[in-house]
Amino acid sequence: MSKFAFILNPVNIQNVHDYFPIAKLTPPGLVKIILRLLPPFKLHYAKNLRSAQGSVIDGCFIACPLLSKQVLALKEEIVLDKILKSVRLAERTGAKIIGLGALMGIAGKGGQIAAEKSPVAITTGSSLASAAILETVKRAADLRKVDLAKAKIVIVGATNAIGQNCALGFLNRVDTVFLVAKNAERLTELKNFLAAQKSTTNIIDKGLALETVIKDADIVIFTTSAIEVPFTTTVNSLKKDAIVCDIPSPRNISRELCEKRKDILIVDGAIIEPPKTAKVGLKLPLKNGFIFACMAETMILAFEGKTQEDFSTGFKPDLNKVAEIKALADKHGFEIKFTSFGKPISL
After folding, report:
1. Domain ranges of the chain
2. Per DSSP, what are the bridge partners of residue 245?
3. What CA–CA distance (Å, rounded) separates 57 from 2?
4. How confident is the model at residue 234 (pLDDT cuts 50, 70, 90)?
5. Which of 144, 198, 238, 299 is the most exposed place for a label (fewest CB within 10 A)?
């Protein structure tokens, strides 16, 4: 039987309270200090998970005790040290593949450093997340009757793996792609790479100037937290009837802000429903049974026995892997869901 391990971090203080109610008695500031000092630990076991093909796996979920805002605020070497300690713990569980969830998969060159230092195969889940976003945005455009061929799309966090896959995936499908990211050198490299594809899509490098394009964008895709890419625009600055695909934790557009703009459609973009026989039983801010794409990719690779080499690591776009993991998801009974704030969107 194949085994996997998945490393995740608490999104916020509420997430800590969900698992450890006694933490409600502790001031938030002290909770943050305790998390900094805690070593990684095993959070949850999932046994005898079965795919639609009949493959069976076990999984161990490991907590890297840093809040998302701490991950973004601390020096990368501090965060990476804690991630690597989490990877060591995952290795000791006997896992054949280790998944790095969300922000865990961005630090250390998109999981590349962890992959170089671990004898176990590593994935960040970025390939399935990319497939899910591309499909979800297409469904949202169809729902809102947006002609993608005429649409202007902003990709925030364009230089990470998901952002690059999305940019490449939208070539020849949309009118304009605005690239927004903080790393100017990687942004220039991405623009030049996309320009070399000789597509009909306009590719525009906007650096960190999200404010200048968001009001004209038909679709906004957040692949990263706006803590990384400054976002001071109010929700009222978004174009009328805009579609926003917001996948990070913490979210960039809150439910409260959406109440002020009923015309805007917020979609999650990277939510997956596993087969009923593969429910992990983990507490997540999603509809019961749904999981994040990064978790699903790790499980799918374990089900398939594709654990001999790293899968989604680094920041280079690879639509072949996006297509491959989507096909494996279909094979093993994992379905991309069309959701907003974790709940299915009514069509």
Report:
1. 2-127+271-340, 130-267
2. 221, 267
3. 5
4. low
5. 198
Q: Is the pLDDT of residue 246 over 70?
A: yes
* Closest by CA position to 67, among listed 34, 100, 44: 34
Which whole-number Å values give the CA distances from 142 to 145, 148, 215, in the listed order?
Answer: 5, 9, 21
Nearest to 190 by CA among 217, 166, 211: 166
Mean pLDDT lowest among 47-51, 81-85, 163-167, 205-209: 205-209
Q: Which CATH class is domain 130-267?
A: alpha beta
Please tell me whether the peptide bond between 250 and the residue prior to it is cis, using omega within 30 degrees of 0. Answer: yes
At CA 166, angle to CA 261 and CA 150, rounded to 5?
Answer: 60
**Tokens matching residue 303:** 């089900």
pLDDT score at 343: 85
Q: How far apart are CA 201 and CA 43, in angstroms?
A: 45
* Torsion angles phi and psi, residue 40, rounded to 5: -60, 150
| Residue 175 DSSP class | S
What does the DSSP assignment read for 138-159? HHHHHHHT--GGG-EEEEETTT
pLDDT at 319 over 90: yes
